[in-house]
Structure formats: structure tokens, C-alpha cells
Write a structure and sequence with these properties.
2 copies of one chain form a homodimer. In chain A, helix 3 (113-121) links the parallel strand 5 (97-100) and strand 6. Chain A contains 10 helices and 11 strands. The first copy, chain A, is 32% helix and 15% strand. The first copy, chain A, has helices at 54-68, 82-92, 113-121, 138-148, 163-173, 191-198, 211-214, 237-241, 249-256, 260-272, and strands at residues 5-8, 29-33, 43-47, 73-76, 97-100, 123-126, 152-155, 177-180, 202-203, 276-279, 283-286. In chain A, helix 1 (54-68) runs parallel beside helix 2 (82-92). The first copy, chain A, is an alpha/beta fold. Chains A and B meet through helix 1, helix 4, helix 5, strand 8 and helix 6 of A and helix 1, helix 4, helix 5, strand 8 and helix 6 of B.
Chain lengths: 299, 299
């Protein structure tokens, strides 16, 4: 054990107040490493399968690197797979990371260079007394601290009934945002994330989508999801007719003496391009700026 | 042109009444092939990219085959890629399919063996007069008929601003169910589907998920999503304590003289296994049957 062991409670300088509002907050925490990370914000949990696919490995690395290099502390559980990749990627970019254990911090599991790296350059954390061995029922319990410390939980990959879903559930109960990365339907490890998406988790494609939530500035143009919409196409007669007005499609068709279906089709195309938007009552308005389109009505 | 050409209007025997309730119904339809398919139900649209990935190709084939072999008519637009694969897969299993064109049915585009196969064993359909050449603005317009004829639209793959999204939008406007197949976030062809999922489309992994909506019987155990939950594990003291009662976690912990965090963790595991469910007010109840779990609270 290379680094000193600390015991924290509600009176400690770096006690994370985030945990006081969760159901059954820990009474104490044992720590090895930089306890000041418990006072630093923002924190995001990245969790997922112990045996991720190459896709899941890539995405865990990409999300953790992007966030950690922008000052976000990466929280996870030190498990093999997604957890370890996330911690490792954070350390690799010189960022901060916290590993919450289901055993004593003096005997991290799995042990090895990553655990020692986190203990030295990040933080190992546990509510279990030093010397406590890992046990199956410790892990779901420790997961509530992973989510409780975090503004948001991102699930990268997980089977249908995996531990990551437990973390996501704690997160939802704790009022944290839950995001799930979609994947191929023929990949069993995508099932857990798809279940979360069905249950209301946010679909996430790019780490930059978290930028606003985390208050870390504008999305990186290289990785942010938001794209400039095509606003440089020539002005059509239809767009001109929308200048300063919000007519219905039928009114537009009459004014332009064109078949209604054609007008509706052109409006649909322009809407996809972000150049027109629909208002309640079947009205259409022109959009002059960058704009997120939405599927009005939904499924 | 091997098959006869028919003109249908609202007075025709096989006129599809589904179209009368959409915005701007077609006044007439031109048809080549089995017009009785316009009276057959249920119908599902399968649409997507003109240049799908191998994954998209596989899924288009899988969804169309599964549905067509159970009596569902596959509706699409005859375009290269997902559309063509869906029509072809339906014909391959001896099923029914309708291709809605953006040109005259006497000069289908693209022309070739598939178009002739659909004209002979399925149905080519268009609101455009015979002889009409394909034109860019015909396609969004024709898409409203694809969705209008269908109970549900399944989008397999599509880029961020692709025509499939227009079909999905018509479908939503028409009160049809919209489903999107998720994919990898590093695959640009998944962007369109992910946008639909963000906007409220249903996430779909298996064609069997449509069985109930379509009234085609129980999901096929091989491809239906619903899995029997693990209900054969031994009864724990905690499960026994839930027999006939709906206590809170805190009451359970007191009764069993166990730490609350441990009880919460075991409940979370049992919930994932579908053996307990949560009721409002923090109450837990035992589940005795197959059960879909959900992420209470959501993101």
C-alpha cells in the first residue's frame, strides 16, 4: 500500500455533500489518494460491461478521454472492461478519476498497476472498512456511491441484466441524468443500453452532448453532435413566401398556385434541412438560424 | 410491361380506406399487380438508406422475412438498398409486398427484375399518371403514401437528413407508429435512427416486438425480444418476507435485522431479475410471473 489511508465523514473537509441527499448515504468513506477530488466538480460516471466489445472499448476510451481532458472527473468501479478503460483513459490524458470499490481501499480488487495508478494520481474510495474482501452483494451497494458522486451516468455497454443497469437505476432514483450508448441489435452487449433507452434514459452519441449539462463550454466542433444546418441553399419561392409570415401549407399552395402535396413535400425537405419549422395549428415558419429539428408528434 | 395497369379511386373495390384519413389523400392510384393487397392487413413499412451497411442489409432482410412470412404485407419505395432488400425478402418467403413509386407504374424506377417481381407477385402503386418520370420532389410526396398504407413504419438505417426521416415524419403526423433500429454511434448511417429515437420513435430490436401491435400472435420465441425472466433461483429470506406484503426497504431491513444498504442492493438485483417490482411510495412487491422490468424514475 503505497499511499496513505484516510477516513472521511460528514465533518471532513472534502466530504462530498452530493452523497448526503441520496437514499441511505454512507456514514463514512475510506480513501486512498487525492481526497480533494471529492470536492471537485463536475463528475461523470462511466460504467459498463466487464467484457466489452471492441466498439465498447473504443467508446469508453473516447468518452473518458474527452471528458477528463476538459476537467471532468471520471467516476467508475475499477472493474475489468469499461470501468478500467475509463479510469485508464482519464489518467492517460492527465485527468482526474475516482474508483469506488466493493472492498477495502487497502486491498483493491482487481489489484494491479491501474489500482495503484488511481491510488496515486486519482482516488480509491470505499464505504467498506479496510481489510474487507470483495463480495457479490457489495457491488450493487457500491454502485449507489458511483452514481451518487456523479452529475450523470453514462452506460457504454451491458448485457440485459447487468450491474451497470443497477447503477443506472440508482442514478435515476437519485435524480442523476442517465445516458446510454446505443449499439447494434445483434450485439448482446447492447441489450442493457437499449433497455435503458426504452425506459427513458437519454440516447448519447458524443461526449460533447454532455458539455452544456456539465458547464464545460461549447461542444467541441469535432465531436459535438450539433451540426450546422444547411442554410446556404438558394432561396426558393416557397421560402420567400414564408418571409415574415406563418401560413399553413394549404395557404402556401394557394398563394403559389402549386399542388398541396408538392408544397407539403418541399416543406418536409426544408424542415429536415432546418430551414423551416412547424408551429402549432399546422403553421409553418421560416428559420433563420441554426436549429435542431424534431419529429413533431412523435411515435 | 407484363402486367395490366389499373386505375383506382375511392369507389374501387380495393381502395385502401387507410389513405382517406391522411392529410392530402391521393385522389387516384395507379396499380400493377395484385390490387387485393390494398385490402389486406396488416401492412408495415420498412424503409431506410439507399446504401445500407452490411448490418442494415441484414436487418432489413431479417425484419421483412419475419413479418412477411407471418402474413404481414411489406410496404416500401423500391429504392436501392433497404427498400429493395425489404421487397425482395418478402417475395423470397412467398409473402406480400407493395412498392409505392415516385413515377408511373408503367415505368418503375429503378427498373429490373425486382420491379417486375413486385408487379407480378406483389403490387406496384403510384399516384402519378402512367408515363410520369421520376423526379426529386416526387419522393417525399410518395413517402406519405408508404406511411399512410402502413400500421407502423420501421426505419432500418439512414443518414442524418435522409428521406427515411421524411417517411417517419409523415407516419407520426398520420398517427402511425414509428420504430427505429439503433446502431453504432460511429456509423453515420445510424444517425437518422438515433435522431428519431431522440424525437420519440420506439426503439426496436426484434421484429417480434411488432407482433402484438399487428395482432399476429405471440412473439416467436427465437426472435421475440421478451425473455422468460429467471424465476427459478432459490427463495431467499428477503423474497419470503415479501410474500403477500408490500413493505418498504426500511421495513424489510428492520424485519430481517440487516443493513438497509444490503437490503436495497438485494432488492435492486431481484428487480433486475424480474422477481420483485416497485410500487409507488417506495413499496416493494413480489412478482410471481414473467415480467418486464422498467427503470422507475427515468432519466
Amino acid at each position: 500500500m503505497a499511499t496513505a489511508l484516510h477516513r472521511l465523514d460528514g465533518s471532513s473537509e472534502h466530504w462530498p455533500g452530493d452523497l448526503d441527499s441520496i437514499e441511505v448515504p454512507p456514514q463514512q468513506l475510506w480513501a486512498r489518494g487525492r481526497t480533494e477530488l471529492l470536492a471537485a466538480h463536475p463528475r461523470v460516471a462511466i460504467v459498463g460491461s466487464r467484457g466489452p466489445s471492441p466498439y465498447g472499448q473504443d467508446q469508453a476510451r473516447r468518452f473518458a478521454s474527452w471528458l477528463a481532458s476538459r476537467g471532468v472527473t471520471i467516476v467508475s468501479g475499477l472493474a475489468r472492461g469499461v470501468d478500467s478503460i475509463a479510469h485508464g483513459a482519464a489518467l492517460d490524458v492527465g485527468g482526474d478519476t475516482i474508483a469506488v470499490l466493493g472492498c477495502g481501499v487497502d486491498r483493491p480488487w482487481p489489484d494491479g498497476p491501474l489500482a495503484e495508478g488511481v491510488a496515486t494520481r486519482g482516488l480509491l474510495l470505499s464505504e467498506f472498512e479496510p481489510g474487507t474482501p470483495p463480495a457479490r452483494h457489495h457491488f450493487p451497494q457500491r454502485n449507489r456511491i458511483i452514481s451518487g458522486l456523479s452529475v450523470a451516468v453514462v452506460v457504454i455497454e451491458g448485457a440485459a441484466r447487468s450491474g451497470s443497469l443497477i447503477t443506472a437505476r440508482w442514478a435515476a432514483d437519485q435524480g442523476r441524468d442517465v445516458f446510454a450508448l446505443p449499439g447494434r441489435v445483434d450485439q448482446p452487449l447492447a441489450r442493457g443500453c437499449h433497455q435503458l433507452l426504452r425506459d427513458g434514459a437519454g440516447l448519447i452519441e458524443e461526449p460533447g452532448e454532455l458539455a452544456e449539462l456539465l458547464g464545460i463550454g461549447d461542444p467541441d466542433p469535432d465531436t459535438g453532435r450539433d451540426e450546422a444546418r444547411a442554410c446556404d441553399a438558394p432561396e426558393t419561392a416557397l421560402l420567400a413566401a414564408l418571409r415574415g409570415e406563418t401560413p399553413t401549407a394549404r395557404e402556401l399552395a394557394t398563394r403559389l398556385a402549386r399542388p398541396l402535396t408538392e408544397v407539403l413535400a418541399e416543406l418536409a425537405l426544408l424542415e429536415l434541412e432546418g430551414r423551416v419549422a412547424r408551429a402549432p395549428g399546422g403553421l409553418y415558419r421560416r428559420v433563420e438560424h441554426r436549429h435542431e429539428h424534431g419529429l413533431t408528434g412523435g411515435a
